[in-house]
Structures are given as C-alpha cells and as structure tokens.
Amino acid sequence: MKHSENRLGPRLVRFGTAVAFLAFSWWAVSKGFRGGQVLPGPAQAAGTFLQALATKAFWDHFLASALRVILSMTAAWAVAFPLGIFMGSHKTVDAWLAPLVFLTFPVPKIVFLPVVLLLFGLGDFSKVFLIALIVGYQVLVAVRDGVSSLNPKYVDSVKTLGAGPWPLFRHVFLPAALPHGFTALRLGTGTGIAVLFFVESFATSRGLGYLIMDAWGRLDYRGMVVGILGMSFLGAALFEIIEALEKVLCRWQGARQRS
C-alpha cells in the first residue's frame, strides 16, 4: 500500500493550492504598483506565457538554457560526487585536500566570471564551467561530510566479512553518499538557475536570461514575465527530476520511512 503522501491526487491538490497562493500574491503585488500597468497580473501573464509556448523563439531560448544548466549539473556531479566519497573515506587524502576546499569554498565563484570569460571566451563552455564550479562545490562538501560522518562500525563490520575496496564502496560508501549528493544537487538547482540568469544576461543572444534582459530593455514587461516564468518552470522541472532520480536510486530511504 502506497503512502498517502505519494498519491497523485493529494499531491496535485497541494500543488494547486501553492499555485493559487502564488497567483493571489502576484495579483496583490501587481495591483499595488500602478494598478497593474508595470507588472502584468497573473491572468495576463499566464495568457502571454501560453501564447509564447506555441512559438519557436521561446523554445529556442528555453532549450539553450536547459542544455547549459543540465550540462553544468551533470559535470558538477561527475567530478564532485566521486571526489567527495574519496575524501570522506580516506582520512589522509581528506587531511590534505580539506584545507584547499575550506579556503576556496566560501569565495563567491561568480566573481571569477571575467577571468573565466578571458580564459575560455564568450561561448557556452565558459557559462557551463562557471555553473558547474559553483554547484560542484556544494555537492563535494555535502558528500564528503556525509561519508566522513558514517559510523566506523559499519565499515569495520563489512571489512570483517572479507570485503575489498569495491564491495566496500558499493555497499557502504555509495549508499551513504547518494542521499547527501542528491540533497546538494536539489539545493544547487536554485543556485544554478540564478547563475544561469546572470551569465546569460550579457555576451549572448540565446537563453532565458537574455530573453528577460532584452524584453526589460525594450520595456516589454509581458515578454520579461514570459522569460521569468520560463526560468521558473525550468528550475521546478529540474528539481522534480532530481527528486524522482533520488527515489529510484535511494529506494531504501523510502522503505525506511514507511517502516
């Protein structure tokens, strides 16, 4: 029997309630500023957004942004996740690499944007690299902390059964790291979308960030809202995809919560 929280009906009701609350808040803010002349109301914005969904131009911008952020998060995970496990499971390696991480993690990576553009040019690679760098640090720290906090008794009990490095990784370190990695990746979704908007706001002609800033410069407020809604939809879709992946790859967590 499935848990009530996973049923589609109650989930849709909760999402509908959240959308209604946001729409009401939007309407109140819109009416509060020049009677809706600057910020379109939710009905006008929804109508304009639905019209934009039928245009090729919107999907060109959406797919350009989606490709950049998906490549960034994939690259961040591919590098930071195994490195986090390696650091968390080897005290000597962690002792040497942790100071480097602690010194560089608090530095806002967005300030390196001019340097990244100088090194890698104005193309997509520099944008993907910067987003991956920011999200990768979040995944690395979360996974490293999660593995290093693992109770040593679990490791010792598996070793006493004769397990080598690979079984130890597969049955102990990987299950301990996955939930922390997915949590960091979900948190990194918001960060990645925010940085995506920043890097797309100049030196490019494709992407939702460009769409927002271009419409804002032309005082096309409805077009601006279309870009904002598109970016919100992209972030929410990524968040849901990551959560779905976590449910598939971390099934023991759901079983433990239901027990």
Automatic annotation (TrEMBL):
Q: Which GO terms describe its cellular component?
A: plasma membrane
Q: Which residues cross the membrane?
A: 12-29, 66-88, 100-122, 193-212, 224-242
Residue intervals of the ABC transmembrane type-1 domain = 62-243
**UniProt entry keywords in alphabetical sequence:** Cell membrane, Membrane, Transmembrane, Transmembrane helix, Transport
Please list the GO biological process terms of this entry.
transmembrane transport
One Pfam entry name? BPD_transp_1
- Cellular location of this protein? Cell membrane
- The primary location reported for this protein is membrane
Matching CDD domains: TM_PBP2 (cd06261)
Matching Gene3D superfamilies: MetI-like (1.10.3720.10)
Membrane association type: Multi-pass membrane protein
Record family assignment: Belongs to the binding-protein-dependent transport system permease family.
Put simply, this protein is called NitT/TauT family transport system permease protein
The organism of origin for this protein: Desulfosoma caldarium
